[in-house]
Design goal:
The strands form four sheets. A six-stranded mixed sheet has the order 1-2-6-3-7-15, sandwiched between helices. It is α/β, with parallel strands linked by helices. It is elongated. The longest helix has 21 residues, at 234-254. It has 13 helices and 16 strands.
Length: 426
């Protein structure tokens, strides 16, 4: 926790220059553009238009997805794509002082069953302080907050006083791994400090765990149902492996002692989320394919977690007479999210918390989260100290009737504007 610190006059001027109505209108425009991960071109056009309207110079990057996949640190993908459209916005003086990086992703997950929504997922409908729609909280609300803060700095006359640079990166492909962020880093999107505006309820995330997705291929031996004992059911063998994964999950979580993670109860969850197998009701299943998610512990890379997962499955194979001779195999698929953290006493965390506390009139808490995020790419590959700070409640992300608080979107923009001035104006 950090005590409130009074804002200086210029910081308050930057915060007061935020236009909540424009910021909310920007959010509405973003939500109304469907941008399921893998198809972010149209929404990036909108981001570029909003930057132009704000008086913020911008540029477009179109890295080759094939080159991104060849990167040794490529973080995987779960959706087909032929583009990685990135939009950058810049204010201030490059090379004249520190560079502060603001990051938001514009891709969203699919809407699921349309019947489960009571609001049109692409209409940006308002109800009181809430704006509903896919991506409203994860994380177009945070992108709108960044845009509102940049507009405030650009239109208030404060840009000429910046002793450094503000760099905004609007990236694709966070939801399925983060290759958009990695491509941006390879193009030079790094800095002295960075803030990602994922939803945190305007507290500050200083650490996050991660996850890998995997595919188990489980063998069996086919037989007619009437003599099923002549066969070996791959479903039974999958259950053997699931029990091993459950025991591994218990052990890994039980060994954690860091309060940032133990507060979550089960920070490193393992699940099987998809199972397919069998092609005839009266035949013993001879092959099952199961897809799942495996938690990456705080302090681990995805490669560390992969070794843990492989060891678990190898031990389970060795302990079962059939699997010993016909082992199940495991391979990684999809996103590969390492963990990341910065110290609670880092000037980025304490400085942002001081400004936010003064603006919001409350203490700002520091948290760790059990999910993966682009923060780990900036910290680990970009060597850029990074925190997550943004509007909204993460618990409604990816859900039907996803929503974000418009008050928090505007408050986040004001905090960011004030923080940018505190960091870059002498």
């Amino acid at each position: 926790m950090t005590s409130k610190v009074p804002l200086r006059e210029l910081e308050q001027a930057a915060a007061d220059a935020v236009d909540p109505a424009w910021t909310v209108a920007a959010l509405e425009r973003l939500v109304r553009v469907p941008s399921i991960t893998g198809d972010e071109g149209a929404v990036q056009d909108t981001v570029a238009e909003l930057l132009a309207e704000s008086g913020v110079p911008s540029e477009r990057l179109e890295p080759d997805p094939a080159e991104a996949r060849a990167d040794p640190d490529w973080p995987g993908e779960e959706m087909p794509r032929d583009r990685l459209p990135i939009v950058l916005g810049r204010l201030g003086r490059p090379g004249g002082g520190p560079r502060l990086v603001l990051v938001g992703h514009v891709d969203v997950v699919p809407i699921g069953d349309p019947a489960s929504w009571s609001h049109d997922p692409w209409a940006a409908e308002r109800d009181g302080d809430r704006l509903y729609g896919r991506g409203a909280v994860d994380m177009k609300g945070g992108v709108a907050s960044i845009l509102g803060a940049l507009q405030a700095v650009a239109r208030s006359g404060l840009e000429s006083r910046l002793a450094g640079e503000i760099l905004f990166a609007s990236v694709p492909s966070e939801e399925d791994g983060g290759q958009g962020m990695l491509a941006a880093i390879r193009a030079g999107v790094t800095g002295d400090k960075a803030v990602i505006t994922e939803p945190t309820g305007l507290d500050i995330v200083i650490a996050h765990a991660g996850a890998i997705t995997f595919r188990l291929t489980v063998p069996g031996r086919a037989a007619h149902a009437s003599v099923r004992r002549e066969g070996v059911s791959a479903l039974d063998k999958l259950q053997t492996l699931v029990r091993a994964l459950q025991a591994d999950e218990t052990e890994r979580n039980g060994a954690e002692t860091d309060p940032l993670m133990t507060v979550h109860g089960l920070p490193y969850a393992t699940i099987i989320g998809k199972v397919s197998g069998g092609d005839w009701a009266s035949t013993v299943i001879d092959r099952i394919v199961a897809d799942g998610r495996y938690g990456v512990k705080l302090g681990q890379t995805w490669r560390d977690a992969e070794r843990d997962l492989l060891r678990c499955i190898d031990d389970a194979n060795e302990s079962d007479p059939f699997l010993r001779d016909h082992p199940a195999t495991v391979e990684l698929t999809g996103g590969k999210f390492s963990s990341a953290r910065i110290p609670a006493e880092h000037p980025l965390a304490t400085g942002l918390a001081a400004v936010a506390g003064s603006m919001l009139g409350r203490e700002i808490a520091f948290h760790g989260e059990p999910y993966g995020a682009d923060m780990r790419l900036l910290v680990n590959e970009g060597r850029t100290p990074t925190v997550i700070f943004g509007p909204g409640d993460k618990r409604v992300a990816h859900s039907a009737d996803e929503w974000v608080s418009l008050t928090e979107v505007a408050d986040c923009a004001r905090v960011l504007a004030a923080w940018l001035v505190r960091e870059l104006v002498a």
